[in-house]
């Protein structure tokens, strides 16, 4: 599945798990995108804090795709970031927004 197909399915509110995931913006390759979504779906089941979700994503991405990854999880925030090309993802799950990117 390409990123554009994934975006289209998610924008139509297709559920991959119990929670609705909406991709807001990304330039990630498909494998990274699917990895991030899978990690969040698995951790979300345990009703853990935003900080724990961010830590898990950062840790797993640094182990698999090398440092340095930044992850922000919250309900209401704004930011301006400088991410490495092809290493940026912003999505929502329920009422949380998650931004994951690789910093150069």
Number of domains: 1
**What is the total tally of β strands?**
4
Helix content: 25-40%
Going by CATH, the homologous superfamily would be Protein Inhibitor Of Neuronal Nitric Oxide Synthase
What is the terminal separation in angstroms? 28 Å
Determine and state the CATH class.
Alpha Beta
CATH topology: Protein Inhibitor Of Neuronal Nitric Oxide Synthase
Q: What gyration radius follows from the Cα positions, in whole Å?
A: 13 Å
| Class from helix and strand fractions | alpha+beta
Biggest sheet descriptor: 4 strands, antiparallel
Mean of residue pLDDT values: 85
Strand order of the largest sheet: 1-3-4-2
Describe the protein's architecture and organization.
With 104 residues, the chain is α+β, with helices and mostly antiparallel strands. The protein has one domain: Protein Inhibitor Of Neuronal Nitric Oxide Synthase (2-Layer Sandwich), CATH 3.30.740.10. Helix content is 38%, strand content 24%. The chain has three helices and four strands; from the N terminus they run αβααβββ. A four-stranded antiparallel beta sheet has the order 1-3-4-2. α2 packs antiparallel against α3. The protein is globular, with a radius of gyration of 13 Å.
